[in-house]
Amino acid sequence: MGEEAPAAVTAAAATSPAPHLLLICFPGQGHVNPMLRLAKRFAAKGLLVTFSSTSYVGGKITASSGVEAGGDGVPLGHGTIRFEFLDDDFDGNDLDDLMRHLETTGPVVFAELLRRQDEAGRPVTCVVGNPFLPWAIDVAHDAGIPTAVLWVQSCAVFSLYYHHVHGLVEFPPEDDLDARVNLPGLPALSVADVPSFLLPSNPYKLLTDAILKQFRTIHKASWVFVNSFYELEPDVVDALPGISPPPPPLIPVGPLVELEEEGAVRGDMIKAADDCVGWLDAQAPRSVVYASLGSVVVLSAEELAEMAHGLASTGRPFLWVVRPDCSAMLPEGYLDSVAGRGMVVPWSPQDLVLAHPSTACFLTHCGWNSTLETLAAGLPVVAFPQWGDQCTDAKYLVEEFKMGVRIGTPLRRDAVRDAVEDVVAGPDAGAMFEKARAWSAAARTAVAAGGSSDRHVQAFVDQVVAGTIGARADKALVAAEQQGFDSSSLRGN
């Protein structure tokens, strides 16, 4: 992120308190991770940053990571990051109940949180929200506070949602797998590649409604950040301004992956197993199969058994994340049968696991956070998407980024074994590994000092410090990246 404080920040710090940026996050691990990482990057460049979410998230983060809610926060880079959570008191597990609770309670308690900042002498300069909390932007807008949005999925998925909301695309029937959707800047997609939230069979109606509501009002935001980097998705970033009506310019600020220099403050809502890295240290280089389906996906007992036997049948050491709510469904005697060769944990420090030299490949559900983490680590993947944007991400990982293979459904143990063999030792394994390493280099360059995403973060910080944050970000921000960049060497076209 650069070691020297920007001149604008240094000059402002000498005469007045740092501007106060408040990030409000949906209560899910897949949202907390990128939002907190973006918060740390803003803080490192000289801002006072408050990270907020529901009281449930606050309890989890403070318990697992040792951060303190309230108070002055902790120094980070040239700025400060602090934590303060909503007084909402929701303790249920049902997603629909959560969405209803947030819709009714969220605006009131968020307005109170903003008032508390005023009373404490640190008025909020700008609010950054995300599309699963559309009311947060409304509350800030009504209070006269400039806003930004972080889209935590890909630019391609943003385009699909935007086209849908504005009636610019019609998806084929779900049983017509031969039909193709063609949108500017995207490869031809089958209905199986479209985010499942946009299909009639989607059971998560309230969650989808919240996303679509944000898209209908997204022009209220001065900046629309996206957890991606220009070099990864140049075609769709270039194509979006030509859509009618055009969306606000997408500003890539990713990949929002954990980097050592961004500080030790973490947002783990589940405590990671302590011995993962030590176990990996004892394994041979590029030998371990890492498998994790994230914090939300739940396999049936039959699917879990097939995955278990498939991993065991690879003949390779494996590290498998099986959350506590699923571990009881493991086949009887399984843990004893794989002892010494397979390690099963309730949660892992995924960024450290993916970066470890003993890890050979990643069997993943293809959530966007996991997709970017494996890109940054330079690992080939075995893609096993379940729903939502995972379907689109898997399409890109396998066919566009060319760094893995896909397992179909229904899940079968032989398919797991064969897919792992393909990406680790098959005839195309070398090419997939080299492609993954090339993407890793591009990802790390984007967030390094002076890289495309780092420049976008700096431009936003400069505007906040200058007091002109209400002015909309302009597409000129990405103009430099749009000139002369050729991704064909990475995509293999």
Automatic annotation (TrEMBL):
EC number: 2.4.1.-
A cellular component term, taken from the record's GO annotations: cytoplasm
Main enzyme class: transferase
Keywords, alphabetical: Glycosyltransferase, Transferase
GO terms for MF: quercetin 3-O-glucosyltransferase activity; quercetin 7-O-glucosyltransferase activity
Entry-linked InterPro entries: UDP_glucos_trans (IPR002213), UDP_glycos_trans_CS (IPR035595)
The keyword Plastid belongs to this UniProt entry's keyword annotation: no
Any matching Pfam family: UDPGT
Recorded family membership: Belongs to the UDP-glycosyltransferase family.
Listed name of the protein: Glycosyltransferase
Organism, scientific name: Triticum aestivum
